[in-house]
Fold:
Amino acid sequence: MFKLRDTRTSLIALGVGVSVAIMGAFSHAEPLGLGETATEEQIAGWDIDIRPDGKGLPDGRGTIEAGEALYEERCATCHGLFGEGEGRWPVLAGGQGTLKDERPTKTVGSYWPYASTLYDYIRRAMPFTAPRSLSDQQVYDVTAYVLYLNEIVEDDFVLTKESLASIEMPNKDNFFVDPRPDVKNTRCMDKCADPKKLMIAGTLKGITPVGHFVEGADAPAASHDAQMEKEREEEKLRKAHITGEALSTQHKVKAASLSELALAGKATYEGACKVCHGSGLTGSPKVGDSDAWSARIKKGMPQLLDHAIHGFSGDTGVMPPKGGRVDLSDKQVEQAVAYMVESSQ
Structure:
């Protein structure tokens, strides 16, 4: 009996000792060799969100005078000289008193609840052709000017992280937490969609995701004017279906045959150039617009390539080097230019 008890005690002690040794080994184990520890600089590059109370804002001060010049240089092409919006690009100023209208004008001044959102968005995403290219100081200047356009601050206002956090936006009190009990989006994880049947697509190689659109669905247009035009066309179709009236159709002109160089550039155009040259953004000549391209084509391909690769600033707009896609090779740019030129003659 004594020997058995001693043996059992020894085994228990041995087991405890082994467990402690294993735990100690894990606690002092070397890294697994996966990834690397983020540096302070890398963390700072991602940690740029701005809260409504101003937390996250960098040091700096912006003036309306400096913001006006920068806005006219970098922003007015899309948003208009006074924030009125150009073409289908967003309106930034005005719209006060329209939120109850059938087609409200939602701008920074009429709709946005926090001024911090304006700084955060400009810093992350603007200008459209070269996001994150503005310094913190420039973002302060442009933010101050957009607030001034909306008559939220006076012309002598100086924007700092302290003063920005203190700004009260006109529509702030109209935002609230939905009190209904059925809007909490509690996860059920039952009867989930089959991932294999999900369709993910992108109109511009991921720049404008449309995976939530179903082909053939009546998705809204990108602006109020475009939506009204869409509704007018649908009304014509509805009436024609009832009356049997034939609608006139426009026949597209068959595209001219393209050279091998131009055909090779179509993919680059779709993925990198179409953002501007498909819409006319920043004064870019739209592909297919022969009038816009004729004068440029007369200057010859060498000059067009030089402007496309190294950048160009003219009376009608700005072309950043390689359209802001410095990852493209000179050959890819040459192919894309050939595609645009041959498609616009």
About this structure: Residues 37 and 43 are 10 Å apart (CA to CA).
